[in-house]
Structures are given as structure tokens and as C-alpha cells.
Write a structure and sequence with these properties.
Blueprint lengths: L1 E4 L10 E4 L9 E10 L2 H8 L15 E9 L11 E5 L8 E5 L3 E3 L13 H14 L7 E5 L4 H12 L3 E6 L2 H10 L3 E4 L5 H8 L5 E6 L3 H10 E9 L12 H7 L2 E4 L7 H14 L1 H5 L7 E6 L3 H10 L5 E5 L6
Parallel strand pairs: 8-9, 8-11, 9-10, 11-12, 12-13, 14-15
Antiparallel strand pairs: 1-2, 3-4, 3-6, 3-15, 4-5, 5-7
């Protein structure tokens, strides 16, 4: 098979479409013929040499995919060869085939194209696990997501609205904010021109956000705490603005607030399986009913992964950037 390899860390040109050995499904795994994968910030970090796959994971980038079941490993039940599936991965999505733990496999939702389904696993698992399983966003609460036009952001807006929350977003252009509004965002903040702390206060009668989903990290830490409501919950899932920040514990105590920081890729298999099961139970019906949908900016041939990385790093996209494998045309 072919896969995107990284012979040496570097810029987008470091991604090389090359012939590699086929994966073999082990105990409890399913072999999937990949039709499409999606680009995530973690893939960029891996390409740069900053985020290696967990032990035992595929060395190739790609944290999600969609495709068809080719073979079942020992001990796998509930799936059949030929099933249309999408999957949460620890790596290996940028390839023609990938071995996936069966607990991280999902059926393609009804009404969703097989290629577009590749846009779903990572964002749904990330948003549901952080916003609902950890931060416990409730109907009527105010939810702020930074990077509202990103893959994570576009899914977070839709899921928060689906449960009856009021949604605030930050984004860097009127066009991106307009797309967020189309998805249901109520409070639109252009972070290049406005202070999200002040905007939240003005639009919530001074109370702030009950839940904040943050991809920025250190750069926003102090302001995120300032933007939290009493009993607010801040969920940090990215470090685009740095890894080390100063936390005002006094402000946190006064607000009886909580700060959590999680990652998905390195979690034990049983934790990932529990998250995937929750996504299938709670999110898949919303997708099949048309309440929530994948937002895809563009789809490029998998061999052109370098260009896809350039698009992601330029932040010119809205939603997900997909990579389409040669099998999509089969």
C-alpha cells in the first residue's frame, strides 16, 4: 500500500507519499481500506517532529478516517467485511489501509457521504468528551468556543446549540464569523478587533461563560478565567498560544470555577472506546436527523497532503480539510 511518510521532520514538503508495508490487524482490531482522512493540528505537530505517535500506533499521520472494512482481526464481533465505517485513530489515517481497534470504529451515519464521514470522528469525540462528559454543558448555559470556524469549532457550535446552550465564538474575520452564525452561534467576537472577555460580559449581563472550550492555551489562560461565570468550567484542548501560563487561583476560587486539560490521542483504549460509544449514542442520532452536519472546507488527493497542511497552517479554511485516498475513485 501507499502512505504519507515523514522521512525527516520539517515543513509540508517533509510529507512523502511512498510505498510501505500493509498493516495486519491484531487481536481486537479491524483492517480498514481508507477512502478519506482529515487533517488535524496534531498531524502538523507530528510532521514538525513535536508530537510522536503513542507506542504501538502507526507511524503515519492521520487521527481519523472513513472507509470500508477489509478484514477482522481475532476476537472481533459486530462488524463485517464491506461495512462502511469511520474511525478514531492514534495514527495511520494518511494511508490506503489502517488497522483500528474495534472500539474506535463507528458506522457511517445515514445521510452522510463516505468521504465526508472522515470529517467526523476526531471532532465529535473531542467535543463530546470535553464539553459534555467533562465540562457538563447544560441547556440554557453560555458556551464559548475559541476558533469557532475550525473543525472543532464548527462541530462544537452545532452540538452546543443542539442541547439548548447559548453559543459564543471567536474567529479572525467577518467571513468566518458569518459562517459561525449560520451554524447557530449567538455571540460573534472578532478577536483581531474585540476583547472576548468584554464581549462576553456585555452579552451575558456580566455573568460570563459557563463553559469555555479553548485551543489556544497559555496566551488565553488569564483572560479565559476572567471570562468564566461563577461555577464556570474551562476545558483546554490545545496549546497554539503556548504551554506555560500564570493561573490566578484567587479568581478561580472566587468563581468556584474549574480548569481541565485533556488530550485524546494517547488515552488508553478502553477510554477511547467509552468516548466513541458515547458519540455513537448521543451525536450520531443528531447527525442522522440533520441537526448536526460535518463542515468540510475542501478535499484534496491524499498524495497532496503537503498542500493540505499549508492550507491548515494558513488558517484560511472553515471546517475540515480532507484527504481523499485513491480508493475513493474505485
Amino acid at each position: 500500500m501507499h502512505a504519507i511518510t515523514i522521512p525527516e521532520p520539517g515543513g509540508p514538503e517533509a510529507l512523502v507519499w511512498a510505498e510501505v508495508s500493509d498493516p495486519v490487524p491484531g487481536e481486537g482490531e479491524v483492517l480498514v481500506e481508507v477512502v478519506a482522512s482529515a487533517v488535524n493540528r496534531a498531524d502538523v505537530l507530528q510532521r514538525q517532529g513535536f508530537y510522536n505517535p503513542p507506542p504501538g500506533a502507526s507511524p503515519y499521520p492521520g487521527l481519523e478516517c472513513a472507509g470500508r472494512v477489509l478484514a477482522l482481526g481475532p476476537g472481533v464481533t459486530g462488524w463485517a467485511v464491506g461495512d462502511a465505517v469511520c474511525a478514531l485513530l492514534a495514527g495511520g489515517g494518511y494511508a490506503e489501509k489502517v488497522a483500528v481497534p474495534a472500539g474506535q470504529l463507528l458506522p457511517v451515519p445515514k445521510g452522510v457521504d463516505l468521504v465526508e464521514a472522515a470529517a467526523l470522528p476526531e471532532v465529535t469525540a473531542t467535543v463530546w468528551s470535553n464539553v459534555f462528559m467533562v465540562a457538563h454543558l447544560r441547556p440554557g448555559e453560555t458556551f464559548l468556543v475559541h476558533g469557532g470556524s475550525s473543525g472543532i469549532g464548527t462541530m462544537a457550535i452545532q452540538l452546543a446549540k443542539a442541547v439548548g446552550a447559548r453559543v459564543a465564538v471567536t474567529a479572525g474575520s467577518p467571513e468566518k464569523l458569518a459562517r459561525c452564525a449560520e451554524l447557530g452561534a449567538d455571540i460573534l467576537v472578532n478577536y483581531r478587533e474585540q476583547d472576548f472577555v468584554e464581549e462576553l460580559r456585555e452579552n451575558t449581563a456580566g455573568s460570563g461563560a459557563d463553559v469555555i472550550l479553548d485551543l489556544i492555551g497559555a496566551k488565553y489562560l488569564d483572560r479565559n478565567v476572567s471570562a468564566l461565570a461563577v461555577n464556570g468550567r474551562l476545558a483546554i484542548i490545545g496549546l497554539q498560544g503556548g504551554a506555560k501560563g500564570e493561573l490566578n487561583l484567587g479568581a478561580l476560587l472566587t468563581k468556584r470555577a474549574a480548569v481541565t486539560a485533556t488530550s485524546l490521542r494517547g488515552r488508553p483504549l478502553h477510554e477511547k472506546a467509552a468516548i466513541v460509544a458515547a458519540v455513537r449514542e448521543h451525536v450520531w442520532p443528531l447527525i442522522e436527523d440533520g441537526v448536526v452536519r460535518p463542515v468540510v472546507d475542501r478535499a484534496l488527493p491524499m498524495a497532496d497532503a503537503a498542500e493540505a497542511h499549508r492550507v491548515l497552517e494558513s488558517s484560511a479554511h472553515i471546517g475540515k480539510v480532507l484527504l481523499v485516498a485513491p480508493s475513493a475513485g474505485a
